[in-house]
Each structure stands twice: as structure tokens, then as C-alpha cells.
Amino acid sequence: MTASHSVEKIGGTSISATQTVFDNVLIAGRRGPDLYNRIFVVSAYGGMTDLLLEHKKSSEAGVYSAFAKNDPDVSWRDALERVREAMHTRNSEMFARPMSCAQADRFVDERIDGARACLSDLDRLRSHGRFRLTEQFATVREMLAGLGEAHSAYCTALLLQDRGVNAVFVDLTGWDETQPMSLDERIHKGLDDIDLTTQMPIVTGYAGCEGGMVRRYARGYSEMTFSRIAVLTDAREAIIHKEFHLSSADPRLVGDDARKIGRTNYDVADQLANIGMEAIHPRAGRGLRQSEIPLRVRNTFDREDEGTLICGDYVSDKPRVEIVAGLRHMYAMQFFEQDMVGEKGYDAGILEVLTRHKAWIVSKSSNANTITHYLQGNSATVNAVVADLEERFPAAAITTQPICMVAVIGSDINRPGLVPTALDALGKAGVEIMAMQYQIRNVDIQFILDPADYEAAIKALHKALVVNADSGSNHNQEAA
After folding, report:
1. Tell me: the pLDDT tens digits for 368-394?
2. Which of 82, 86, 206, 411 has its CA 20 to 30 A from that of 364?
3. 3-state secondary structure at position 229
4. What's the Cα-to-Cα distance from 81 to each of 75, 78, 116, 124, 180, rounded to whole Å?
5. Do 195 and 332 belong together in one domain?
6. What range does the domain containing 419 cover?
7. DSSP label at 207?
8. Phi, psi of 209 (to 5 degrees)
9. Helix (H) or strand (E) segment spanning residue 87
10. Is residue 311 included in any domain, yes or no?
11. pTM for the whole structure
12. Domain holding 49: CATH number?
């Protein structure tokens, strides 16, 4: 394969807007050879993975969680039939040709029936008291996750074929294969025989491989597949199609003041991922950065706009804040031990407990006798961490409190007067600062605040550091 091609990922919300994604991304006015030299990696249709696993936000039971809990009041069989019905409904909405719709329905039925047979066998096995299926649960989760991506990739390829495009369904899920493979081997097997100049691969975002994609990357597995394909095929560019622009702040909070970032670097992308606003999964971004493949984030619903380009070596021409974002719900865990000063081992001990409970550390600070971790997670996880730490360090005083974090981020924010301007803006908005983190590298400043002040802080900082800064720049240019 040559480096003349792109690898493009279409997210769940975007792929669900069938007509739009065809008009703006998959075909977008192209004809003949211009349609090709593009590999597409697709996520499951919006909401489908929630039905297959569990709802990402509400934790409402999907097929996997119903099967794993084995609750007689929540039938995994009924949950699986709801998936079948949802997929059939999606097919009927997308396909104009009855023959193609029937073909898509047969594909769904084959996969659903296969999953049902597998789960039924496991269900019978665990009905015998001697058997425990703990290890098999991870495999079940992997299998179910792949169903959603297989459905969307198959249907997308079929819809393209109906429009005269030589699309090829590339199934990386390993559905009917027993040979264990690494991710790289799976990708090579799926793509090596494809001629990118005359064929358009539509690839499943889930790839069945040793170690398990869901187990290793949770819901970020499709971005890992996308990134690895770009690296292995030496892509010219990697493109993610999302339902929004990568903006200077959440448009729902700042309205028309939000602006497309346009250009930034992988360092900024890492900072965004750290606070849960992912441009790309951090491990996926690492592979692209190391291979010097630029990443472009485009808005599926804005066909003419080129989106935001993320490169490894980009630094803004002059210091500026590119984005204001944050986490609305966090916890500050403060560990105080009077005798800590001059002693070692506390940091490592705390980190071991946090790692064991899979607590997400967004940031931390320390002084002579206090270590504070700012954590993203639920109260149950935080309480479990505190209980373990109190047992391990009985002389320590450990307290927690809910907080939020708002960060100002940019490839170079070393602008004179930035911090005083930010503090003044927050003060005028009536926002009191509980703590502040400012790194020497001049990539971000983190403000720790009361959760009630989250929206006010976003608006105030964005207005002062992005909108007013741009207005001043434009004014100076006009004056010049």
C-alpha cells in the first residue's frame, strides 16, 4: 500500500445520520477514482453498543450485563431480541431496495442467532454449581461488542454497493474464526488483498484479537483499530468524523462565541483526553504521533469545512488559549500526614491503592505533609479508596469533597498577564477558586472549583481568554 490514502473513522452519531454521512463523507460528490484511496472504520450505530453491553451513562442493563448478573427479572434473551429488533428497524429505515434490506436482516439474524446459541450453551453450563464463568464473561463482552460494529460496517458497504461504489465489508471481529491473532495480524489479514485504488474498505471498529479490545481499551476500542490501521498502512492522513467541530468551548455553554480550533498538536489532544473531552483516545493518538501521521477532526454535518488538523510539531504562531474545557463532576482527595515530611513511600502507597481501584487521576498536588489527588469517578470508588488508605496509613487524615475542574489549554499559553486576566474574569463572575495548577510547560492551567460554578467559569474564562483575546488581536491587526 502507498501513502496516498487516508484512514477515516466515522463515529456512532455520525454513521447513524445515514443520508448525511453519504452526502458529506462517503460519497460527497466524488465519482470514479476519486471515491477510492480511503479506508473507513465505522462505529456501531448510535445506542447499539448500549443495548449490547450496558448504557454508558445510566448503566441500564444490556445483553452483557443481563447475562453476567443472571438476574431472573432481567432476561438476557429478551435483551438480545431487543437488539435484533433495533437492528432490523435501522435496516428498514436505511435501505430503499427491499432485496438489500432483506440481505441486511439475514446478516443480523445470523449474528444474533449465533450469539444466542453461544450464550445459551454458557447459561446451561453455569446452571451446574461446579462451573464458574468468570473468565468467559470477558469473552462474551468482546463478542457482543463486535456485533454492533459488524452490523454498521456490513450495512454501510451494502448501501455503497447499491450506489455503484465498489465497497468491501472488512470484518475484523473474528466472528467465525478460532485462530487467535494479534491486532496487527488481524488487520493485515483483513486488508492486505485489497486494492485501495479500486476498492473502498468498510472496516469494523471492533477487532477480535489477543488480550481483547474492550478489556484493554473499554469503549475506545474503535479508535485503536482506526489508529493502528493508519500506522500499519502508512496513511497520508487520519481523519475522524464527529458530530461537532473541535471547538474552543462547548457551544451549548458559550453559544455562537464557540469557534473551531483549526490547528493544534497532540499535546493538546492529550490534555483534552485527560479531562474526558477526547479528540482521540490517548493510546490511539500516541501511535499516530509516533508515526508522524497528522490527525484531522471534521464535522460530519459541515461538508465544506476542513476541520481541525492535529500534528506533532505544531505550535501556535503566538501564545494563545485554544480551548476552555473541564470536568463537571470530580472529587478532591486530600491525604494529610504530619510526619510525612522527609519520608518516602507515601506517594507510591497511595498510587498503588488508586491503581487497584482503577480510579482516574486527572491531576495531583503536594506539599510537605499533604498529597491531594483530583479524581474522576463515582463516590463508591472514592470511598473504597479512602477505606483502603485509612487501613494502610492509620495515622493519616484523609478527606474528600466534590469539585469540578476547568482548564484553559493551548499549544503555547505563555502569554503575559494570562493568569491575572483569568483570575479577574473568575472574580467578576463570582467564582471562588479552591486551587490552581499551572505547569511550567505552558500547555494548560487547571482551576479547581465548586461544582456549582462550572458553567459560569467556562463562560467567563472563554470570554476573557479566547473571545476578547481574538478581538484584541483583530483590532491590533486593523490598526496596523
Report:
1. 999 999 999 899 999 999 999 999 999
2. 411
3. helix
4. 10, 5, 9, 19, 29
5. no
6. 323-479
7. -
8. -155, 165
9. helix 76-94
10. no
11. 0.88
12. 3.40.1160.10
